[in-house]
Write a structure and sequence with these properties.
21 helices, single chain, 18% strand, 6-stranded mixed β-sheet, binds alpha-D-glucopyranose, alpha/beta, 28 strands
Length: 745
C-alpha cells in the first residue's frame, strides 16, 4: 500500500481513539500536514490544478501521476470511479475533487436563483439546494459552484439571473441558506457538496452591465454592500470561494491581495479553498495585468488563489517561479493544504467512489417541491380583478413563445436538467381546463422570444375573439440570459409587444405571464394587460405552478428582489440609493410636459430623467396577492439604543381581503445624517407571514444595531450614534409605511 494510503488508513484508525484533548481541528491539521509533507513538488502543483473533462485515457494518465487535483464537467460515473482508482493508486494517493455547476437544481430544476430570491423564503433556497446536492452527489459530484452572491443592480447584466438580487440582506440570507442546503448537516456526508461563494468580488457591478467589464468599487462600497453576502457565507461555513473575472479599480480579483488575503483570510479567518474562475488566471494577460503565464501564476498564488480552473499557468510556471524565488514553496504548501483540507472535510479520503446503484431517477417528491418553489417565486405585478380566473370564463386563448417551452422555462445554467420532466403552462392549462370543462385554444403565434414573424397574428386575433379570456405567455428565451449575455435593451424581444397590443384590441381580458432571467422593461405591457404575473425562469414545474396560481389553487406570494425599470436607460437601478443634494420630488416636469419653445431655466433642477421620472416601474419588495393586508399599531421596546443592542418592534398585520395568503412585511432603516452620505433606506429585516382572511397577527421584527455599521469617514466599520428613521412597509416605496425614529447613543 502506498505510503500516503497507509498513512490515511493509520490516521483514520487513530482518529477514532484520539485522546479527548485532540479537537477536530488538530486532527484535521495533523492529517493535512502529514499528507502534504509527503508530496513531491509535481504532486503539489497537480493538486492546485482543476481540469475540465477530456478523453478518459488522457485524464487517466494525469490522475495516475497524481497530478489531478480537481475535475470539472465529468458526469460519467464509470469514468469518475476509474479516475479515482488511478489517483488513489498514485504516489500522492489523494482523491480527485469532482465539480459541476449545479446552480439551481440537477435533474430536477428549481427557479433560477433570482426566482428563489423572489420567494423571500430562505427555506426554499435551503431545501432546493439540498435536493440538488442529493441528486448531483449520486453522480459523484461533490463540489458545486454556487451560491452566486454577486449583488446585482443592473438588469443589462445577464448574470443577474444567477443572483439573489440587489439587496445585501436578501442575498446574504439566501446565500447562507443555499450553503446549508448544499453542505447539509455535515460536509463529509456523501450526499453533501462543497458550496462555493462566487464571484469574489464585485462582478455584479460590471460597468454598463457588460459582462466581464471592469468595476470601480471603492473600499466603502465593497464593505458596505458587495462584501456583505460573502462575509455571511464564511459565517455559514461555506467551504470554497471563487474569484471573479472583473478587475476592480485596476486589480483583477484573481490576484487581489486585499480581497483574498486581507479580507478573506486575515479578517474573516476563512480556512477553505479558493479557486479561480474559468481561465481567470491566464486571462490576467488579456487584462494587461500580467505579461505572461508565469507572471499570472505568480500574482495569483501570492494573492492566495489556491487552485487554477482549466488554464495551465500553475502547471507551466510554478517550478521556475520557485527557482527564481518569485514564489515561496511555503505559499504553495498553504494552497495545497487548503485543497487537501477541503477534500478531508468532504470525506473523500475514506469515500471517494460513486456507488452505481444510486443513480435512481430523482424522486417525484423533488418535482413536487419544484412546483412549490415556483409558486412561491411568482410575483403578481398587476391584477384588475381578472385573476384568479372567474367561474364565468368558459373559453381561454393561450398564446406566446413561452407557453409551451419546456427548455426555456428552466432558465440559464441548466446542463443536467431533465427537460422531459419539465411541465409547461400549456400542458398544465390543458389539464385544468379539461377538468373544468373550459375550452382552451392554444396558438404559439411567435415560436421563440426573438421571433419577429407576425404572419400568425390575424389567425390569433380571430381565435382570441371567440374566447372569454386571453393568456399571453412570453418573456425571454433562457439562452438570452446568463453568462456573457448582456443586453443593452431590456424590452421584450421580437414581436411580443406588438402581439400584446394586437391582442388588446380584441377587448377581451388579457393576462400577461412573463418568464425571464432578468427584470425586463414591461412598461407598455403592464399598462395594457389586465393582469401581469412575473416568473424568473420557474424551472421544471413552472407550468403547473403558474396554472394553479391563475386559477386560484394557490395565491401569489412572490416579491421583487430587484427593481423593475421603466426604460433600459435607468440601469443600474436599485432602491438603496443616496438622497443626493437635489432629490426628486415626484412632481418633476416630464419630457412631454415641457412647453414648446420653453426658455432656459434652472428652476426645479432635481435628480430624475425627463423621459422616465425617478424610480422603478415596480420597486424592490413589491408584489401583489389575491388578498390585501393592513399594517397598524407599530410598537417598539424603546427609542434609545447602544451600539451593541437589538432593536425589536412589533405591529398588527391584518388580512383585509377574501383569500388566505402570505405577506412579506419589511423593516427599513435610514440614518438621518451620517459622517458619509448613506442610502435613504436599507432593508434590515423581513418575514413571510401567513394570515387567514379576516384575521390579524402581531408580527415582530428585529435587527441588531451592529447591522447598521458602515465604513465611515474615518474608514472605520462602525455603527454611528445619531438619529435613525425606521419604517415597516409592504415594499421599498414605503407607501403607507408605519414609521418612527430611534436614536443610538
Ligand atoms: C464560468 C462562470 C462560473 C462557473 C465556471 C465553471 O465561466 O463564471 O460562474 O462556475 O465558469 O463553469
Amino acid at each position: 500500500m502506498k505510503k500516503i494510503n497507509f498513512l490515511v488508513a493509520l490516521f483514520i484508525l487513530t482518529a477514532g481513539c484520539a485522546n479527548k484533548t485532540d479537537n477536530t481541528d488538530n486532527l484535521e491539521n495533523r492529517f493535512v500536514d502529514s499528507v502534504v509533507s509527503r508530496l513531491t513538488l509535481d504532486e503539489k502543483i497537480g493538486q492546485m490544478s482543476q481540469f475540465t473533462a477530456v478523453k478518459i485515457d488522457e485524464m487517466e494518465n494525469i490522475a495516475s501521476a497524481g497530478l489531478m487535483g480537481s475535475l470539472l464537467n465529468e458526469i460519467d460515473t464509470v469514468n469518475i470511479n476509474r479516475l479515482q482508482r488511478a489517483a488513489i493508486k498514485s504516489h500522492s494517493g489523494i482523491p480527485i475533487l469532482i465539480a459541476r455547476d449545479v446552480i439551481h437544481g440537477y435533474k430536477t430544476v428549481f427557479p433560477i436563483p433570482l426566482g428563489t430570491a423572489a420567494t423571500f423564503d430562505t427555506s426554499v433556497a435551503r431545501i432546493s439546494s439540498r435536493i440538488a446536492a442529493e441528486e448531483a452527489s449520486v453522480y459523484g459530484i461533490r463540489w458545486t459552484f454556487a451560491p452566486m452572491l454577486d449583488i446585482s443592480r443592473d438588469a443589462r447584466w445577464g448574470r443577474i439571473a444567477e443572483s439573489f438580487g440587489e439587496d445585501p440582506l436578501v442575498v446574504s440570507l439566501m446565500g447562507e441558506a443555499s450553503v446549508k442546503g448544499f453542505q447539509g448537516q455535515s460536509l463529509n456526508n456523501p450526499s453533501s457538496m462543497a458550496a462555493c461563494a462566487k464571484h469574489f468580488c464585485g462582478y455584479g457591478a460590471s460597468e454598463s452591465g457588460r459582462d466581464y467589464n471592469s468595476t470601480y468599487l471603492t473600499e466603502r462600497q465593497l464593505r458596505n454592500v458587495y462584501l456583505k453576502p460573502f462575509a455571511a457565507a464564511v459565517k455559514s461555513g461555506c467551504e470554497t470561494f471563487m474569484t471573479s473575472f472583473n478587475d476592480n479599480d485596476g486589480v483583477p480579483s484573481t490576484a487581489n491581495q486585499f480581497l483574498l488575503r486581507k479580507v478573506l483570510r486575515d479578517e474573516w479567518k476563512f480556512t477553505g479553498t479558493v479557486v479561480s474562475d474559468w481561465s481567470s488566471v491566464s486571462e490576467m494577460i488579456n487584462h494587461g495585468f500580467c505579461a505572461d503565464e508565469a507572471e499570472a501564476a505568480m500574482k495569483a498564488i501570492n494573492a492566495g488563489c489556491d487552485m487554477e480552473m482549466v488554464s495551465q499557468c500553475y502547471n507551466h510556471s510554478i517550478k521556475q517561479l520557485i527557482d527564481q524565488k518569485k514564489i515561496d514553496i511555503k505559499t504553495v504548501d498553504e494552497c495545497v493544504k487548503n485543497i487537501v483540507r477541503t477534500k478531508y472535510r468532504l470525506g473523500l479520503f475514506t469515500n471517494p467512489f460513486v456507488k452505481s446503484s444510486d443513480q435512481s431517477a430523482s424522486a417525484e417528491s423533488n418535482l413536487a417541491y419544484a412546483k412549490i418553489s415556483a409558486q412561491k417565486a411568482a410575483i403578481l405585478l398587476k391584477n384588475n380583478e381578472v385573476l384568479p380566473v372567474k367561474n364565468n370564463i368558459k373559453s381561454i386563448f393561450l398564446c406566446g413563445p413561452l407557453a409551451d417551452a419546456p427548455g426555456d422555462q428552466l432558465g440559464t445554467w441548466v446542463f443536467d436538467g431533465d427537460v422531459s420532466r419539465s411541465v409547461t403552462l400549456y400542458t398544465a392549462l390543458k389539464n385544468i381546463c379539461s377538468a373544468q370543462n373550459i375550452k382552451l385554444i392554444y396558438q404559439p403565434v411567435l415560436n421563440y422570444s426573438r421571433d419577429k414573424n407576425t404572419s400568425d397574428f390575424s389567425k390569433a386575433i380571430n381565435a382570441a375573439k371567440t374566447c372569454d379570456l386571453i393568456i399571453f405567455a412570453g418573456g425571454e428565451e433562457s439562452i438570452l440570459s446568463g453568462e456573457a449575455h448582456s443586453l443593452a435593451n431590456l424590452q421584450l424581444q421580437g414581436a411580443q409587444s406588438d402581439l400584446i397590443k394586437t391582442l388588446k384590441q380584441t377587448g377581451k381580458p388579457l393576462v400577461g405571464v412573463i418568464m425571464a432571467g432578468r427584470p425586463l422593461v414591461l412598461t407598455m405591457e403592464s399598462d395594457i394587460c389586465d393582469a401581469l404575473l412575473l416568473n424568473f425562469h420557474p424551472g421544471s414545474m413552472g407550468g403547473p405552478a403558474i396554472a394553479d396560481l391563475l386559477f386560484g389553487k394557490a395565491v401569489p406570494e412572490g416579491r421583487l428582489p430587484v427593481s423593475m425599470p421603466r426604460v433600459s436607460g435607468q440601469q443600474p437601478l436599485y432602491y438603496a440609493v443616496n438622497r443626493t443634494g437635489r432629490p426628486a420630488s415626484g412632481k418633476e416636469t416630464l419630457l412631454n410636459d415641457i412647453p414648446i419653445n420653453a426658455g432656459q431655466t434652472s428652476l426645479g433642477c432635481t435628480s430624475y430623467f425627463l423621459d422616465a421620472g425617478f424610480g422603478p416601474l415596480f420597486c424592490f419588495g413589491y408584489g401583489l396577492s389575491y388578498t390585501t393586508f393592513d399594517y397598524k399599531n407599530l410598537q417598539s421596546e424603546k427609542k434609545e439604543y447602544s451600539t451593541v443592542d437589538t432593536v425589536k418592534v412589533k405591529f398588527t398585520l391584518t388580512n383585509t381581503g377574501d383569500y388566505d395568503g402570505y405577506c412579506v412585511p419589511q423593516l427599513y432603516t435610514g440614518k438621518v445624517s451620517a459622517s458619509v452620505t448613506r442610502p435613504v433606506k436599507e432593508l434590515r429585516a423581513f418575514k413571510k407571514v401567513f394570515v387567514k382572511k379576516g384575521e390579524s397577527k402581531i408580527v415582530d421584527l428585529a435587527f441588531t444595531t451592529s447591522d447598521l455599521a458602515f465604513l465611515n469617514i474615518d474608514n472605520k466599520f462602525e455603527t454611528e450614534a445619531g438619529d435613525y428613521n425606521l419604517w415597516i412597509a409592504d415594499d421599498s416605496s414605503l407607501q403607507n409605511a408605519l414609521s418612527e425614529r430611534f436614536t443610538i447613543k
